[in-house]
Target: Aminotransferase DegT
Amino acid sequence: MIPYGRQSIDQDDIDAVTKVLRGDWLTTGPTVTAFEEALQELSGATRCVSATSGTAALHIAYAAAGVSAGDEVVTTPMTFVATASCALALGARITFVDVEEDTANIDPAAVAAVATEDTKVIAGVDYAGHPIEVDSLLEVSRRIGALLLEDAAHSIGSTYRGRPVGSLADLTTFSFFPTKNMTTAEGGAVATLDPALGQRAHEFHFIGLVRDRDRMRYPDEGPWHQEVHEWGLNYRLPDVLAALGLSQLRRLGEFKARRAEVFARYQEGLAGVEGVRLPTRREHVDPIWHLYPMRVLDGRRREVFDALRADGVGVQVNYIPVYWHPLFEDLGYRRGMCPNAERFYSEEISLPMHAELTDSQVDQVIDAVRRAVGA
Model:
């Protein structure tokens, strides 16, 4: 079976991890700091806070934004559930809006139609690695006084109008799960240009601990003293995993280039095949392709999916519209809310996409798709 996604680990990655294992710090040490600083340099953010997962990063970002009971978060249904559920966990009211017909990214016009001064956060997702229309979304968020969160789980290393993802929105979250563009095994990060948001993110992921004596309520308690002023959780990424991430960051350009080659090979090999629709890329973005989301037309998605799996191609579907999950259904959300997203879901198949794919494997996938659709 050709895997839909997988990590790429080399000897340098292994050496980086074993070096930390032989050292004095397994967690909350200097490698975490080095990893966060490298993320800042790559993303153009002024503060990056690493975390135990992409889901944790979203939870941290919403907490840093001050999301609490009754606040509205406007987001996309075409994403992994955590983009919405992490806001829900803080008591937010989730409003789903439809996606652009071509990119499957959140539609700025749909956001503008529903967002009000009661909206706390607008959260978009860089689906498949293609950045959201940040400028249009920032225009809406600034008009109503909301923050823009860019869920960049798919897109570390992408650029939008020449600017790196991580330097665009008020808050940006990354995921370093093994199938993502780089990995820390499990991990994520929050990036921001706002020092206050960055500090709030840091403290939330560090159990809320305050160690700055100038901010303490009881600064004379003793040199051991630390305080918790606001609720937080232990979402700290350990040095062992940060070491892997730091090594992987050095290879991100290589990963991006190979994924671009795979994407181009699919585009060429599947061009003109009837019954499928290939993904698009807008001229002002330079994506790192996390997914290759092919659309199967005429109601044949399940048939083609099953045929590809039977032919040894490990395809996947990304994603079920979030409000279709029973969690949201039980809260009163109903199907039919976002027709573009639902149509996209009904047609989408993610073909294998990762840096370890060989040209021969890509060609095998292309041939399998042609057989499955009868081309």
The chain has 13 helices and 15 strands. Residues 11-249 form a domain with the Aspartate Aminotransferase; domain 2 fold (CATH 3.40.640.10).
